[in-house]
Amino acid sequence: MAAIYSGIHLKLKSAKTPWEDKLKLAQFAWVSHQCFLPNKEQVLLDWASRTLVSFYNKKLELSDEITEKLWTYLDNILHSRKLQDLFKDGKTITLRFSIAQIINERLSTFYTQKMLKNLSIVLSCCSGILSSPPLAIVYTTKFELLVDLLNKLCQIACCQLMSEVTVSSQLFEVLQLAFGKYLLVQRQQANANRVFGQVTKHLLQPCLLLRHLLTTGMQMRTNNDARAQQHLCKEIRNHIEALLRGAVFPPELLPSYTEELLPEKEPHKIKKEGLKHVLLPVNTIQSALGDPNFCEPAIHGKVVANSVPLLFKLFLESYNKTENHLLSFHMLIQLFQCLKISHLQGDFWNSPLSSSEWISDLLAMEQLLNSVLSSNIYNIASDRIRHKEVQFHFYQQLAQMLVNHPQAAIPAWFRCLNALISLNHLIVEPDLDDLLASAWIDAEVSEPRTKKAQESLIGALFHTYAKLRQFQKLFEQVLCVLCRPAAEELRLPVLPASIKTKLCECLQDLPSSQILDVASLILEKCQTVIIPDVNGNSDMALKLQSMSTLLHFVLFHMTSLDDSTPLRIVHRTQSLLETMQTEIIQILFNLLKNVQTEEKELEIWVEKVSDSVLLLACTWVSTDTLFGLNCRHYVSPLAKTTFALADSTIGTWDFSSILPGLDAKCWEKITRHLRYSCSTSRYCTEWLVLQKMKNMLLHTSCFTETSDQILQHAGAFILQSGKSYLNGEETELWDGNIGSINSLSYPTAHWHLVVSNLPVLFPYLSLNDTLYISGLLLKTLLVNKVQTSPCDESSLITIEKVSKDLLCSSLLPEMCMLHSSFLSHIIQHSARMLCSTVNNVANQPLQQLSAEDILWWNNVPASQIASTGPSNEPSVCWTAMEKVAQNILSLVKERSYITLEDEHIERLLNLLEIISTLQLDSLFPVDHTRCFLLLMSMAVNTKASAACSEAFSLKFLTTCFHLLAILQTGRNANSSFKVFYASDVLEAVLTSMFVACETFSSILITASWNEFLHGIQTFLEYYLQIMFERRQSVKLNLEKFMSFLATCQPCAANTQHSRHWSPAADQLLLVALTVQCHVLSLQLQQQHGKHQALGTLLNLLEQAVLQAGATIELCLQNSPKGQPLPFAFISCITTLLKADSSYVHLADLVSGASEPESPAKQGRTQQLSHNELYKQFYFQILKELDLASVNVQFLQSALQFLTVFCSIPEMYSAQVTSVAVFHSVRKMLMGSGVQFIQDLEVQLTELMTQLMEKCTTDNFCIILRLLLEGVDVGNIWKENAEAVLSAILLIKVLLSCPLSGEKERAFWLSSPQIITALVLQAKEAAQDATLLSTLIVPILETVAVLLRQGERVLSNPHHVTLVFNILLIVPLDQRNYGSIFLGIHEVLFSILQCHPKVMLKAAPSFLDSFHRLVVSVMHEGRQKGDRGITDEFEVILKCAQLVERMYTYIAAKTEEFTVLSPFIVGQYVIELQKVTLHPAVKKHLTEGIYHILDLCLERDIKFLNASLPVGVREVFKELYRDYNHYHKILKQGDEKYTA
Known about the structure:
Radius of gyration: 45 Å
Distance between the termini: 105 Å
Strand content: under 5%
Number of helices: 72
Structural class: mainly alpha
Number of strands: 2
Strand order of the largest sheet: 1-2
């Protein structure tokens, strides 16, 4: 065989052999074991390499197809498993350097000619070479070749990223390999100058361009997933940074940088022989960045701006030390000069920058300044003393450039100024006025990110100058800017919301003296600059408005004077307010008195002066009042006029009592101006009137008729002032600041003022005003139901919020007349809505109930008696309501209904939502009855149209009955019986609902139908209970109701009348019958011992039970065969069974049965009315339990029925039924999820309690055996996890049941077997993620309960220690972390509290389990940025609290843990050293470990200091220092006072 293939080498070299044959021979030779050539692999590799080199060197002529196949052949060799195996065996195979050159040349051709053909094969070959160390020698030993390869790869990558073609992920993988190889080679290079030259010449520009493209969002358009792509991009960027750091800024080049940047420092070190070749690294970098051929002109500026901060950061990382700070600064200057923005410093720059250039350069400048800040390059003292403030002057030039070229639309512009202020506030101080103008006063900022940057800058200014106690200096500049000539009409409000917040924070921290300085400055500017020229000058008037807004805000947020305030501050404040009143407010009032207002519109200057002076007046009055109330040393300027006003009668519009100079004449002039204004002035006048009312109420000891009239006029004025403006459709949000009110926000501000002061205003409002307020309240609530607020800012005030707050307030029911009138408006609105669809409007109940000629409320205040208008005789109300009630009933009898469409129902639901917010249980009798009539009419006099959604109609009816039920819980629930007979109400409700049921066919199995039945059931139950409590005509009403229900019996499905009945009506009738049985049963239990009353009620209950049973049987006959039982049937028959059982028991008592075991008692089964029905239902329930495993409501009802059924021993055979029920329940649990089972836990416990109580010992043993079979680990192996889960949950439920005697003994004898089975189950679940999430939490919960219940029963400690096997294997890094953590904690806590004997030997295992919890909390609770308080973090915080609690309990067990306390502390600090905890989590853990440190003796502390590693030891010392400082002292103090 060898002879056959021995000539292959010659054939490959022969020119006569066709190239196709040569390739086939070469491929065969590589893969065949039958081809024997000396050094075959090397020969074939050399042949392929040499052939390709010859072709590209023009020594061979090959077709493109052959060339491609040669590359493919080479690629196959390079990636072959055979080649790698040879390398592993130590065989030497080399590659020619010429092939590396060819690969580089091919890559260069691909880049220059933009041809991508064969690129993938070449890249694959390159990857094969680089990924194999023996072959990579061709690059790693030739540094220039590797640099050239990297250059070509970067260029191709940049070209593809900037083009529209799909980027090859293969290219970036090869690039990553090449970077890795290069970085290894670069570290081995001895000549740093050579590396620098190679990199700056060949790699600097393409690497920076590539990094820019990868950083700025030009993502790779590949088929890879985004996460892998993002990781690859990050890796390449990291490689680029490492390359530049090691090549451009190596330690060896520090002298070169020093010589170039600081030539004057050490000139003697530059030798003459070296002058010919002095390395200028900075100049080289600048030339590379400034090279116009660097990249395309369109992105050149952005690439440079992106690269400059990176280069400066790398420079700092390499060279930044204390002695090199000046060097770093000069490097900053040189790099900054590469930015286009740097040329703005000179006078020769004429070409403006585009917006994109501004953004990129400002971002670069921001990063440079942040690097300066973080590296502490700038030391103010050192710069001033040693370097003649060279840095300070540079930063000052930057600040001047930024201020002279404001870019308020770019967030980075604000952040650059902020960084300069952080360096030194003196940098911006020369241009502080221009900075304030361009960044605050004149800045138009709308974009949220820019607003945040502006807020941060202005906040930094406030904080800096406040900290330096120079706040008045800053405000002096602000006032100078405000006083500059400017187009004030275009100026934005002086205090936007963001800046207002920062100013408020600052003012709260300032001392009163500084705030008074600021206020004095504002007053001085007003006096000297503005007021002298304000007359007729709109520009000055607008400036006055800005000043008054600032003064108002400053004084409003000044800390109030009190008795501890120094007298100097009190006197200054008095003087300031006196100056403000006499020199500002009074002068402006005098100016307004002389203004003529005959024109239809006010001049702008008059309007603004009016706004300003009234705002200042409000400010003066509020501050004067506040200081007077809080500080006894404060003497108000009003004190001088008090004596003059004391004996005279103050007129209605004379405000001299609260503000000197504001007399009636001045007020008349101001109110005349208000006809043309609806902004700040109007609001301020309302506020002043309100303040006068409060002042009168505060200081008037005896009210006269005159004072009452003044108060009534004042209240009317406030309402009338804004009445016409609240009808507008367009309103704005209001921030709560008076100075920011405009024509659109005034309605919101006015409504807020009225509503927030209603307790003051209401007693003095007329009836019409009260009706107006209630009507407006309803209108605003309804309008805003449809028109939602356009802004989601919770801090702003809206009309809707104000109205909603009033509706939910506890004050509204206290204002009885307003409450009643609001209800009247609801009734009127409902009447207009419903009666619009009918012809005979006058005959409609709601129209009669909203009659305007009847006064529908009592207890009218004295101030409103004169204006009540209609007759207020109480009998008129009740007569009218009786008529309405009869009308409602007659319409029901006539089957006359108002047809509702979807839009009507939607609007009615909005009304019902408003009604539900009212406190219905606190209504007065008339209002209660009216509300009852309203809801009754809505429910029984309306009917949904055929086109209306059934679910929508059901929701409406459900809401009506829910509110009717709430009414029955009120204090005046009896009042509705004055206009209705109880039986009439019940009959009307059911009649109307039976009619409605005709349209309900497709929703009987939905949740909304069940909610409807529950709603009407609750109403009927509450109503019947109230009827019994009244004890008036109870028997008569019940008999009438029963006779009515008897007429409503469903027809058999095969009769001719069956078409008039529906399944929905069946269920509704059953609900009514069972409610009757339930209420009668309750009443019989309450009448226990009263035989006469019992006899009457028993007869009624007997009729009800018989009637309900017959109805259920008929309904069951009509229900479709094979269908599940309706949900309503189950609850009804459960109630019926309870009532039947109660009837039999009480009938025995009444008939004289005395012995519990008498024959009458034993024959009780025969006395139950519907014995067969109950048994039939029982078997049906068992059959359907497993069919409805996901219907929680059905299962709850079914389990409740089984509980009641099993509580009657005579109903079933105990030998069979207890096990049968258990089987069915277990089967049902197998098909349910964990969450559903938790919802059924209460019902399951009740049922199991009954089963365990009634079953025999033998049956209990059968049940116990079934449970043990269920937790057998074989079920997991058979993939029957459902059986395991059901058994675990049933064991947990069984532990909640009281057991006694043989049953209890049998269970606890099986407990070791149960614990062992649960341990095995936990081990299996820990290995399978799907089982872990399902089984582990129930296992932990069951074990915890088992340990608690077995406190005195589990005598063998070994059985308890088995539990640690579960705790040590359960993984804590799961999705349901909180549940698993809580389960483990509860098990540990049960062991600690209930099994002290175990702790004597198993303390180490306990601590190991607990330490897992501590570590997990530290891992989950580590600091992860500003994540806020999320639901996930709340869980972690709760876990940390549990750890703290466990530490406390461990510390209490001193006997078991004193010896181990240093080890607990040591474990804690070792883990603490690894993470940075969130402060809230750390607080709980630290408090817990302090209790363990209480157990540590002095020798333990020495042991820890000696044994802990160095880094951990520092953490422990800090912990112990805090322990001694905070906890130990507090503990010693507590012990001092402890007996």
